[in-house]
């Protein structure tokens, strides 16, 4: 199939940029066109069926370990040469990266991203997306790939905002959530059904020794 054409001046980019500047996070329902959401969900399910998703690890480098008591999702990182539908998603996220750099001067250099599948009952305890020993992750971005999600299905992304405010996002297909990786603690609540997403991080240049 030919790659879907996506406009690089997505109408919601400016709103996301404004939200980030104002409050450090943004939720945009209907960010992904429905056809793209369905294709990405199919790609995620295909990978899961082929056994390509693996239990996600906690931590970084040699300290990485699988701890289902902390997070129970199964993931696969996107790579060069993935299916065209993944490239469409990556192009869309790159247009978001450029918009954030242009308006917020964030100096975001790249984007890393993985499919995630939470089996029923799986969760991810409250955490920050920035590693202690690596502060390159600057903006987190999650898009959801689930149709007809209802509040009683659980699986909300719960964000812990300023002044003790908690805000829940329903993981409904096409919805995008972005937030500052080092500033917004968040968790994934257990769901009664399978929960699919694409999660990614816009990163700044690091000060890694080479
Ligand atoms: C993560 C994460 C949130 C979500 O993968 O780090 O917090 O809603 N995901 O899937
Ligand atoms: Mn997270």
From TrEMBL:
Protein's UniProt keywords contain Oxidoreductase: yes
Record has Oxidoreductase as a keyword: yes
Gene Ontology MF: a single term: L-ascorbic acid binding
SMART domains recorded: P4Hc
InterPro entries, alphabetized: HIF_prolyl_hydroxylases, Oxoglu/Fe-dep_dioxygenase_dom, Pro_4_hyd_alph, Pro_4_hyd_alph_FE2OG_OXY
Cofactor(s) needed: L-ascorbate
Annotated Fe2OG dioxygenase domain residues: 107-204
GO biological process: cellular response to hypoxia
Keywords assigned: Dioxygenase, Iron, Metal-binding, Oxidoreductase, Vitamin C
Protein name from the UniProt record: 2OG-Fe(II) oxygenase
Source organism of the structure: Pseudomonas palleroniana
């Amino acid at each position: 199939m030919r790659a879907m054409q996506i406009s690089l001046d997505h109408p919601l980019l400016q709103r996301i940029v404004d939200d980030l500047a104002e409050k450090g996070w943004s939720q945009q329902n209907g960010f992904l066109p429905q056809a793209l959401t369905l294709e990405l969900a199919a790609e995620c399910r295909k990978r899961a069926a082929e056994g390509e998703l693996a239990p996600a690890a906690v931590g970084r480098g040699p300290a990485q370990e699988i701890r289902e008591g902390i997070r129970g999702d199964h993931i696969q990182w996107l790579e060069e040469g993935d299916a065209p539908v993944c490239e469409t998603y990556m192009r869309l996220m790159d247009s978001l990266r450029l918009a954030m750099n242009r308006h917020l001067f964030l100096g975001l250099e790249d984007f890393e991203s993985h499919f995630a599948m939470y089996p029923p009952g799986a969760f991810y305890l409250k955490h920050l997306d920035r590693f202690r020993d690596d502060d390159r992750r600057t903006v987190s971005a999650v898009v959801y790939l689930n149709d007809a999600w209802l509040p009683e299905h659980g699986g909300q992304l719960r964000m812990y905002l300023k002044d003790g405010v908690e805000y829940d996002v329903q993981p409904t297909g096409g919805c995008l959530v972005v937030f500052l990786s080092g500033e917004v603690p968040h968790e994934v609540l257990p769901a009664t059904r399978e929960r699919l997403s694409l999660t990614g991080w816009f990163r700044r240049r690091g000060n890694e020794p080479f």
